[in-house]
Each structure stands twice: as C-alpha cells, then as structure tokens.
Amino acid sequence: MNWTLPVGFVLFLVGAALGLAQLWLCLWGPETFFKLMTTVGVLLAIVLAWDLVLRETRDAEKLESRRELD
Asked: Distances in Å between the alpha carbon of 19 and those of 13, 39, 67?
C-alpha cells in the first residue's frame, strides 16, 4: 500500500479533531485556530499532490513497458 493514503487519512482526522476541539472546547484563539487548520490543509494538499505524481509516474512506466513489448 502507498504511504500517502494512511498519511492523508491521519491528516484528515487531525483536522476533524482540531475542528471539534475548537467547536466544543474553544482551545485556541481564532487566529491560532485558522493557522492550525491552514497548516493541516496545506499538508493534506501536499500529500494528495504527491500521490497524484506517484500514480502518474507509475502509469507512465506501465505504458512505456507495454510499448517496449510490442
């Protein structure tokens, strides 16, 4: 299994936990909470983008190997 799937899911869970903690417990000020959520969102976007790059690379290698067989 690719490492990006579990890491992305963990980042999603962290974002959800932060959101619920802020909603019910008001642990951070609005500016700090915004910074936390932005950081988690950017990290999630980086992991998803990296997953797309890895998949595209693998697909391109598969196509290239099929062309060599022909």
From this structure: 10, 13, 49
Each residue's pLDDT tens digit, 3-60? 999 999 999 999 999 999 999 999 999 999 999 999 999 999 999 999 999 999 999 9
**Whose CA is closest to 41, among 31, 51, 49?**
49
Q: Where are the domains of the chain?
A: 30-64
pTM given for the model: 0.86
Residue 24 to residue 14: CA distance in whole angstroms: 15
Alpha helices in the chain (DSSP H): 4-25, 30-69
Neighbours of 44 (CB within 10 A): 18
